[in-house]
Amino acid sequence: MEPDGEVVEAEHIIVATGGLVRTLPGIEIDGRTVMTSREALELREVPESIAIVGGGPIGVEFAYFYRAYGSEVTIIEMLDHLLPLEDEDIGRELERSFKQQGISCLTKAKVEGLRRARGKARLAVTIDGREQEVVAEKVLVGIGVAANSSGLGLEELGVDLDKGFIKVDGSMRTSAPSIYAIGDVTGKLPLAHVASAQGVTAVEHIAGLQPPELEYTRMPRCTYCQPQVASCGLTEAEARARRSGVKVGRFPFRANGKAAAVGRDEGFVKLVIDADYGEVLGCHIIGPEATELIAEACLALAIESTASDLARTGHAHPTLSEALKEAALVAQGRGIHFWSEPSRGK
Questions:
Q1: In this predicted model, what pLDDT tens digit does every residue of 49-83 receive, in sequence order?
Q2: pLDDT digits over 282-332, tens only?
Q3: What is the average pLDDT value for the chain, to the nearest integer?
Q4: Would you name the residues annotated as active-site residues?
Q5: Quick one: 220-345 is in which CATH superfamily?
Q6: Ranges of CATH 3.50.50.60 domains, the chain
Q7: Which residues are paired to 49 by β-bridges?
Q8: Which residue stretches of the chain are H helix?
Q9: Would the pTM of this model clear 0.85, i.e. be above it?
Protein backbone atom coordinates (compact mmCIF):
# COMPACT_ATOMS: atom_id res chain seq x y z
CA MET A 1 0.00 0.00 0.00
CA GLU A 2 1.36 3.40 -0.93
CA PRO A 3 1.19 6.31 1.52
CA ASP A 4 -1.80 8.53 0.75
CA GLY A 5 -0.94 11.43 3.02
CA GLU A 6 -3.27 10.43 5.82
CA VAL A 7 -1.91 11.14 9.30
CA VAL A 8 -2.82 8.88 12.20
CA GLU A 9 -2.12 10.21 15.67
CA ALA A 10 -1.81 8.09 18.80
CA GLU A 11 -0.54 8.45 22.33
CA HIS A 12 1.46 5.24 21.95
CA ILE A 13 2.88 3.49 18.90
CA ILE A 14 3.93 -0.17 18.63
CA VAL A 15 6.30 -0.99 15.77
CA ALA A 16 5.77 -4.57 14.57
CA THR A 17 7.20 -4.53 11.05
CA GLY A 18 8.89 -7.92 11.33
CA GLY A 19 11.98 -9.10 9.52
CA LEU A 20 13.41 -9.42 6.05
CA VAL A 21 15.16 -12.40 4.53
CA ARG A 22 18.93 -12.21 4.90
CA THR A 23 20.97 -12.66 1.76
CA LEU A 24 24.58 -13.55 0.96
CA PRO A 25 26.93 -11.22 -0.91
CA GLY A 26 27.54 -12.44 -4.44
CA ILE A 27 24.43 -14.63 -4.54
CA GLU A 28 21.72 -12.78 -6.41
CA ILE A 29 18.15 -13.67 -5.51
CA ASP A 30 16.14 -13.86 -8.72
CA GLY A 31 13.10 -15.65 -7.30
CA ARG A 32 13.34 -18.41 -9.90
CA THR A 33 16.61 -20.29 -9.67
CA VAL A 34 17.81 -18.69 -6.44
CA MET A 35 15.01 -18.23 -3.93
CA THR A 36 14.15 -17.07 -0.46
CA SER A 37 11.70 -18.90 1.77
CA ARG A 38 8.84 -16.85 0.31
CA GLU A 39 9.41 -18.05 -3.26
CA ALA A 40 10.09 -21.57 -2.00
CA LEU A 41 6.58 -21.70 -0.54
CA GLU A 42 5.06 -20.43 -3.78
CA LEU A 43 6.53 -23.12 -6.04
CA ARG A 44 3.90 -25.17 -7.85
CA GLU A 45 6.24 -27.88 -9.13
CA VAL A 46 8.63 -30.06 -7.18
CA PRO A 47 12.24 -29.32 -8.17
CA GLU A 48 14.33 -32.30 -9.16
CA SER A 49 17.10 -31.04 -6.91
CA ILE A 50 17.58 -28.19 -4.46
CA ALA A 51 20.58 -26.84 -2.57
CA ILE A 52 19.78 -25.10 0.70
CA VAL A 53 22.28 -22.56 2.01
CA GLY A 54 21.97 -22.51 5.80
CA GLY A 55 21.38 -25.37 8.22
CA GLY A 56 19.37 -23.45 10.79
CA PRO A 57 15.62 -23.86 11.38
CA ILE A 58 14.61 -22.42 8.01
CA GLY A 59 17.04 -24.61 6.13
CA VAL A 60 16.24 -27.91 7.84
CA GLU A 61 12.48 -27.38 7.71
CA PHE A 62 12.58 -26.82 3.96
CA ALA A 63 15.07 -29.68 3.53
CA TYR A 64 12.62 -32.12 5.12
CA PHE A 65 9.69 -30.61 3.20
CA TYR A 66 11.28 -30.92 -0.24
CA ARG A 67 12.76 -34.35 0.45
CA ALA A 68 9.31 -35.58 1.44
CA TYR A 69 8.13 -34.58 -2.05
CA GLY A 70 11.02 -36.39 -3.70
CA SER A 71 13.61 -33.69 -4.36
CA GLU A 72 17.31 -34.42 -4.07
CA VAL A 73 18.32 -32.12 -1.22
CA THR A 74 21.73 -30.79 -0.18
CA ILE A 75 22.14 -28.59 2.91
CA ILE A 76 25.22 -26.37 3.09
CA GLU A 77 26.01 -25.16 6.62
CA MET A 78 29.05 -23.07 7.49
CA LEU A 79 29.30 -24.18 11.14
CA ASP A 80 30.11 -27.60 12.61
CA HIS A 81 26.59 -29.04 12.78
CA LEU A 82 23.03 -28.52 11.64
CA LEU A 83 20.98 -26.27 13.93
CA PRO A 84 24.18 -24.70 15.29
CA LEU A 85 22.33 -22.69 17.97
CA GLU A 86 20.86 -25.85 19.47
CA ASP A 87 22.62 -28.30 21.77
CA GLU A 88 25.40 -30.03 19.82
CA ASP A 89 23.93 -33.49 20.42
CA ILE A 90 20.72 -32.37 18.72
CA GLY A 91 22.57 -31.28 15.59
CA ARG A 92 24.44 -34.56 15.39
CA GLU A 93 21.26 -36.60 15.77
CA LEU A 94 19.45 -34.57 13.12
CA GLU A 95 22.33 -35.07 10.69
CA ARG A 96 22.15 -38.81 11.28
CA SER A 97 18.42 -38.85 10.68
CA PHE A 98 18.61 -36.65 7.59
CA LYS A 99 21.28 -38.85 6.04
CA GLN A 100 18.99 -41.85 6.55
CA GLN A 101 16.28 -39.89 4.74
CA GLY A 102 18.63 -39.25 1.84
CA ILE A 103 19.37 -35.61 2.61
CA SER A 104 22.99 -34.65 2.00
CA CYS A 105 24.42 -32.50 4.82
CA LEU A 106 27.60 -30.51 4.14
CA THR A 107 28.83 -28.92 7.37
CA LYS A 108 31.86 -26.68 7.92
CA ALA A 109 31.10 -25.64 4.36
CA LYS A 110 31.35 -22.12 2.96
CA VAL A 111 29.68 -20.96 -0.24
CA GLU A 112 32.24 -19.03 -2.25
CA GLY A 113 30.12 -18.17 -5.25
CA LEU A 114 27.36 -19.14 -7.65
CA ARG A 115 27.00 -19.30 -11.40
CA ARG A 116 24.12 -20.32 -13.60
CA ALA A 117 24.67 -22.70 -16.48
CA ARG A 118 22.37 -24.91 -18.57
CA GLY A 119 19.34 -24.07 -16.49
CA LYS A 120 20.93 -25.02 -13.18
CA ALA A 121 22.79 -23.32 -10.37
CA ARG A 122 26.38 -24.27 -9.65
CA LEU A 123 27.61 -23.42 -6.17
CA ALA A 124 31.31 -23.25 -5.42
CA VAL A 125 31.73 -24.65 -1.90
CA THR A 126 34.83 -24.92 0.28
CA ILE A 127 35.01 -27.63 2.97
CA ASP A 128 38.15 -27.82 5.11
CA GLY A 129 40.10 -26.03 2.41
CA ARG A 130 38.90 -28.34 -0.35
CA GLU A 131 36.76 -26.96 -3.14
CA GLN A 132 33.80 -28.76 -4.61
CA GLU A 133 30.78 -27.88 -6.73
CA VAL A 134 27.16 -28.44 -5.80
CA VAL A 135 24.79 -28.47 -8.76
CA ALA A 136 21.03 -28.07 -8.28
CA GLU A 137 17.95 -26.99 -10.16
CA LYS A 138 17.03 -24.57 -7.37
CA VAL A 139 18.90 -22.82 -4.58
CA LEU A 140 17.21 -21.69 -1.37
CA VAL A 141 19.00 -19.13 0.80
CA GLY A 142 17.82 -19.69 4.36
CA ILE A 143 20.29 -17.96 6.67
CA GLY A 144 17.95 -16.09 8.99
CA VAL A 145 16.30 -12.70 9.13
CA ALA A 146 17.33 -9.06 9.08
CA ALA A 147 15.37 -6.20 10.63
CA ASN A 148 12.64 -4.55 8.59
CA SER A 149 13.24 -1.08 10.01
CA SER A 150 14.54 1.10 7.20
CA GLY A 151 12.43 3.89 5.73
CA LEU A 152 10.25 4.25 8.82
CA GLY A 153 11.82 7.45 10.12
CA LEU A 154 12.73 5.81 13.41
CA GLU A 155 16.14 7.41 13.80
CA GLU A 156 14.66 10.87 13.29
CA LEU A 157 12.38 10.16 16.23
CA GLY A 158 15.30 9.15 18.43
CA VAL A 159 14.79 5.40 18.28
CA ASP A 160 18.10 3.60 18.84
CA LEU A 161 18.97 0.79 16.44
CA ASP A 162 21.57 -1.97 16.58
CA LYS A 163 22.44 -3.33 13.14
CA GLY A 164 18.96 -2.32 12.06
CA PHE A 165 17.17 -4.01 14.96
CA ILE A 166 15.20 -1.78 17.33
CA LYS A 167 16.60 -1.70 20.83
CA VAL A 168 13.96 -2.24 23.54
CA ASP A 169 13.90 -2.56 27.30
CA GLY A 170 12.10 -5.21 29.32
CA SER A 171 8.75 -3.51 28.71
CA MET A 172 9.32 -3.34 24.94
CA ARG A 173 9.87 0.44 25.12
CA THR A 174 12.32 2.00 22.69
CA SER A 175 14.58 4.93 23.47
CA ALA A 176 11.87 7.27 22.17
CA PRO A 177 9.01 8.16 24.51
CA SER A 178 5.74 6.33 23.81
CA ILE A 179 7.21 4.16 21.03
CA TYR A 180 7.36 0.40 21.57
CA ALA A 181 8.60 -2.41 19.35
CA ILE A 182 7.80 -6.12 19.23
CA GLY A 183 8.61 -9.16 17.12
CA ASP A 184 11.43 -9.89 14.70
CA VAL A 185 12.28 -6.21 14.30
CA THR A 186 13.65 -6.26 17.88
CA GLY A 187 16.16 -9.01 17.06
CA LYS A 188 15.45 -10.83 20.33
CA LEU A 189 14.17 -14.24 19.24
CA PRO A 190 12.47 -14.42 15.83
CA LEU A 191 9.57 -16.71 16.70
CA ALA A 192 5.83 -16.05 16.41
CA HIS A 193 5.02 -16.95 20.02
CA VAL A 194 7.80 -14.67 21.24
CA ALA A 195 6.34 -11.79 19.23
CA SER A 196 2.94 -12.50 20.78
CA ALA A 197 4.40 -12.49 24.29
CA GLN A 198 6.20 -9.23 23.54
CA GLY A 199 2.94 -7.74 22.30
CA VAL A 200 1.15 -8.66 25.52
CA THR A 201 4.01 -7.17 27.54
CA ALA A 202 3.91 -3.90 25.58
CA VAL A 203 0.13 -3.51 25.82
CA GLU A 204 0.08 -4.33 29.53
CA HIS A 205 2.77 -1.73 30.15
CA ILE A 206 0.86 0.86 28.15
CA ALA A 207 -2.21 0.02 30.24
CA GLY A 208 -0.29 0.90 33.39
CA LEU A 209 0.42 -2.62 34.56
CA GLN A 210 3.86 -3.92 35.54
CA PRO A 211 4.35 -7.12 33.55
CA PRO A 212 7.43 -9.20 34.37
CA GLU A 213 10.29 -9.02 31.91
CA LEU A 214 10.42 -11.82 29.38
CA GLU A 215 13.19 -14.37 29.86
CA TYR A 216 14.07 -15.37 26.32
CA THR A 217 16.20 -18.37 27.29
CA ARG A 218 13.09 -19.91 28.85
CA MET A 219 11.04 -19.51 25.68
CA PRO A 220 10.45 -22.69 23.65
CA ARG A 221 12.47 -22.94 20.44
CA CYS A 222 10.85 -25.29 17.94
CA THR A 223 11.89 -26.62 14.55
CA TYR A 224 9.19 -28.30 12.49
CA CYS A 225 11.05 -30.90 10.49
CA GLN A 226 10.92 -34.66 11.05
CA PRO A 227 12.17 -35.60 13.54
CA GLN A 228 10.89 -32.54 15.35
CA VAL A 229 13.27 -30.47 17.47
CA ALA A 230 12.38 -28.41 20.52
CA SER A 231 14.38 -26.85 23.33
CA CYS A 232 14.38 -24.33 26.15
CA GLY A 233 16.99 -23.06 28.57
CA LEU A 234 20.74 -23.60 28.35
CA THR A 235 22.59 -26.04 26.15
CA GLU A 236 25.05 -28.36 27.85
CA ALA A 237 27.99 -26.25 26.62
CA GLU A 238 26.38 -23.02 27.88
CA ALA A 239 25.62 -24.57 31.25
CA ARG A 240 29.16 -25.90 31.71
CA ALA A 241 30.54 -22.45 30.86
CA ARG A 242 28.39 -20.84 33.57
CA ARG A 243 28.18 -23.42 36.35
CA SER A 244 30.81 -25.25 38.37
CA GLY A 245 28.98 -28.55 38.07
CA VAL A 246 26.49 -29.89 35.56
CA LYS A 247 24.73 -33.23 35.17
CA VAL A 248 23.04 -34.51 32.04
CA GLY A 249 20.18 -37.00 31.81
CA ARG A 250 19.46 -38.46 28.39
CA PHE A 251 16.64 -40.87 27.57
CA PRO A 252 16.11 -42.40 24.10
CA PHE A 253 12.63 -42.68 22.61
CA ARG A 254 13.43 -46.25 21.59
CA ALA A 255 12.99 -47.14 25.28
CA ASN A 256 9.60 -45.39 25.44
CA GLY A 257 6.52 -47.59 25.10
CA LYS A 258 4.33 -45.07 23.27
CA ALA A 259 7.09 -44.23 20.78
CA ALA A 260 7.52 -47.93 20.04
CA ALA A 261 3.75 -48.41 19.69
CA VAL A 262 3.35 -45.62 17.13
CA GLY A 263 6.53 -46.62 15.28
CA ARG A 264 8.36 -43.32 15.83
CA ASP A 265 11.17 -44.10 18.21
CA GLU A 266 14.13 -42.10 16.92
CA GLY A 267 15.67 -39.33 18.97
CA PHE A 268 15.88 -38.56 22.68
CA VAL A 269 15.17 -36.18 25.55
CA LYS A 270 18.18 -34.50 27.10
CA LEU A 271 17.99 -32.60 30.40
CA VAL A 272 20.75 -30.31 31.62
CA ILE A 273 20.79 -30.15 35.42
CA ASP A 274 22.71 -28.13 38.00
CA ALA A 275 24.82 -30.71 39.83
CA ASP A 276 24.69 -28.97 43.20
CA TYR A 277 21.03 -27.98 43.52
CA GLY A 278 19.32 -30.20 40.95
CA GLU A 279 17.75 -27.24 39.13
CA VAL A 280 16.65 -27.87 35.56
CA LEU A 281 18.79 -25.58 33.39
CA GLY A 282 17.78 -26.75 29.95
CA CYS A 283 15.84 -29.31 27.97
CA HIS A 284 16.55 -30.51 24.44
CA ILE A 285 14.28 -32.89 22.55
CA ILE A 286 14.54 -34.45 19.13
CA GLY A 287 11.90 -36.95 18.20
CA PRO A 288 8.14 -37.52 18.01
CA GLU A 289 5.96 -34.56 19.08
CA ALA A 290 8.98 -32.73 20.51
CA THR A 291 7.27 -29.38 19.91
CA GLU A 292 4.39 -30.45 22.15
CA LEU A 293 6.49 -32.09 24.86
CA ILE A 294 8.67 -29.01 25.41
CA ALA A 295 5.87 -27.17 27.27
CA GLU A 296 6.44 -29.25 30.41
CA ALA A 297 10.12 -28.34 30.39
CA CYS A 298 9.29 -24.64 29.91
CA LEU A 299 7.09 -24.80 33.01
CA ALA A 300 9.90 -26.52 34.91
CA LEU A 301 12.23 -23.66 34.03
CA ALA A 302 9.63 -21.02 34.87
CA ILE A 303 9.09 -22.33 38.40
CA GLU A 304 12.73 -23.39 38.90
CA SER A 305 11.92 -27.07 39.25
CA THR A 306 14.52 -29.69 40.03
CA ALA A 307 15.21 -33.02 38.39
CA SER A 308 13.69 -34.61 41.48
CA ASP A 309 10.46 -32.66 40.91
CA LEU A 310 10.22 -33.95 37.35
CA ALA A 311 11.11 -37.49 38.37
CA ARG A 312 8.45 -37.59 41.10
CA THR A 313 5.69 -36.12 38.92
CA GLY A 314 3.29 -38.78 37.71
CA HIS A 315 3.26 -39.29 33.95
CA ALA A 316 0.58 -41.43 32.33
CA HIS A 317 1.63 -44.68 30.67
CA PRO A 318 2.01 -45.17 27.80
CA THR A 319 2.81 -41.58 26.76
CA LEU A 320 5.70 -39.85 25.07
CA SER A 321 5.91 -37.46 28.04
CA GLU A 322 7.28 -40.29 30.18
CA ALA A 323 10.60 -39.65 28.41
CA LEU A 324 11.03 -36.40 30.37
CA LYS A 325 10.48 -38.16 33.67
CA GLU A 326 12.92 -40.89 32.64
CA ALA A 327 15.57 -38.35 31.58
CA ALA A 328 15.28 -36.73 35.02
CA LEU A 329 15.77 -40.15 36.64
CA VAL A 330 18.83 -40.84 34.47
CA ALA A 331 20.33 -37.49 35.53
CA GLN A 332 20.05 -38.70 39.14
CA GLY A 333 21.50 -42.12 38.38
CA ARG A 334 18.11 -43.72 39.00
CA GLY A 335 17.02 -44.61 35.47
CA ILE A 336 14.41 -47.38 35.30
CA HIS A 337 13.82 -48.28 31.67
CA PHE A 338 17.19 -47.05 30.43
CA TRP A 339 20.32 -46.60 32.52
CA SER A 340 23.56 -44.81 31.87
CA GLU A 341 26.18 -43.22 34.09
CA PRO A 342 25.04 -39.61 34.66
CA SER A 343 27.39 -37.12 33.03
CA ARG A 344 28.90 -34.70 35.53
CA GLY A 345 31.79 -32.30 35.53
CA LYS A 346 32.96 -28.79 34.85
A1: 999 999 999 999 999 999 999 999 999 999 999 99
A2: 999 999 999 999 999 999 999 999 999 999 999 999 999 999 999 999 999
A3: 95
A4: 317
A5: FAD/NAD-linked reductase, C-terminal dimerisation domain (3.30.390.30)
A6: 13-19+146-214, 24-142
A7: 72
A8: 37-42, 57-68, 88-101, 192-206, 236-242, 257-262, 290-302, 307-312, 322-331
A9: yes
